[in-house]
Amino acid sequence: NERSITPADCNTIERDAGVALDLVNKHRRDGYVFGLFRVADAHELRTGNSSVLYLTLDVLETECSVLSRRYWESCEYSDTYPMDFGQCKIITHTSQLLKRPQLYGFNCTLSPVPPDLLECKDCPVKIEVLEVTEQHKNIAAKALKKFNNEGNLTNYFNVDKVEKILK
User: Which residue ranges traverse the bilayer (predicted)?
Assistant: First the structure.
């Protein structure tokens, strides 16, 4: 069999990239669901009954926590406060027998949006992202304790992690 890496098919790559991004989001345990901004690069290696897809995707964080397990297309992007942006390099393997891609590996790097690039037309003040401190965790725990005490729920909730603090 001849093996060669070729540029991926432009007609199907966006769908394949979306599926690959959903696989990445399923494997993540904290943070926010990555949404697809654009496909920066895509190549495919076909060998016999399978193919390997090499993707470089530009991504934006959505408002959905990865714990929600929602698909990236069902999540909204914030227009009020800054979300991180970045790039994911993803490798998927698809066997022609199973016809479903499997995540082989990924590496994502994110950066916060620089404050001078943020624009919020309807915001009366500038929004600032703060570093999460122990004090913020305690405030969240107190708020959730009050919610548990005042709610008529059969289950109680506990703060697992504070992801982001906005001022």
Answer: none
Domain CATH for 16? 3.10.450.10
Integer-rounded Cα Rg, in Å, for the chain is 20
Which pair of tokens denotes residue 57?
Answer: 């995707």
Residue 73 makes CB contacts below 8 A (sequence gap 6+) with 18, 35
Task: Give the rounded distance of the alpha carbon of 77 from its chain centre.
Answer: 11
Tell if the pTM clears 0.70, that is, is over it.
Answer: yes
Phi-psi domain of 17 (left: phi exceeds 0; alpha: psi -120 through 50; beta: other): alpha
Residue 96: inside a domain, yes or no?
yes
Sign of CA dihedral 112, 115, 117, 122: positive
- pLDDT digit string (tens) for 115-127? 555 555 666 566 6
Phi, psi values for residue 42, rounded to 5°: -155, 125
Cα(26)–Cα(33) distance, integer angstroms: 9
Q: Is the domain of 83 the same as that of 42?
A: yes
Domain extent, residue 74, equals 5-112
**166 vs 162, which has greater pLDDT?**
162
